Amino acid sequence: MTQAWVVLTRPDGRDLQAPSEAQMADALAEVYSGKTASPDGEPGSAVLRFGYDDGLMYEVEVSSGGAVRFAEWSDRDCELALADPRVMTALPQDDALQLWRLLAQRQVARIRSQPWQ
């Protein structure tokens, strides 16, 4: 049987398995504060991924300033993109959290139907 999983990669690079809503909100607060940055000086970001052990994976990455990217992959190794990544800019923090909630609840169709650019 295929097992579903959800992983949050925090701005500091730590992975949290099956994050709670509070953990997701905390990671977004860190990103939106603008105080996080990667080692190469790029703006900080956090990524929520949802997928199946033997198949599809979806990810919503949120960067400081509210830049959001939604990507769909054939597998966990990101071998084949199933669609071009969708993006939004300047998304409010509460709206980013709502996207993460939808992803954690396996509501991929609702994420696809958002007003992507």
Task: Please provide a written account of the structure.
- The protein is an alpha+beta fold.
- 26% of the residues lie in helices and 29% in strands.
- The protein has three helices and six strands; from the N terminus they run ββαββββαα.
- The chain has helices at 21-33, 93-104, 108-112, and strands at 4-9, 15-17, 45-52, 57-63, 67-73, 86-88.
- The chain has a six-stranded antiparallel sheet.
- β4 (57-63) and β5 form a beta hairpin.
- α1 (21-33) runs antiparallel to α2 (93-104).
- The longest helix has 13 residues, at 21-33.
- The radius of gyration is 13 Å and the shape is globular.
- The mean pLDDT is 90.
In short:
This protein is α+β, with helices and mostly antiparallel strands and 117 residues long. It is built from 3 helices and 6 strands; from the N terminus they run E-E-H-E-E-E-E-H-H.
Attribute tags:
about 120 residues; alpha+beta; 6-stranded antiparallel β-sheet
Order of helices and strands: EEHEEEEHH
Give the end-to-end Cα distance, rounded to a whole number of Å.
36 Å
> Radius of gyration over alpha carbons?
13 Å
Strand content: 25-35%
Oligomerization state of this entry?
Answer: single chain
The major β-sheet equals: 6 strands, antiparallel
Topology:
Layout: E1 4-9, E2 15-17, H1 21-33, E3 45-52, E4 57-63, E5 67-73, E6 86-88, H2 93-104, H3 108-112
Antiparallel strand pairs: 1-2, 1-3, 3-4, 4-5, 5-6
Helix pairs in contact: 1-2
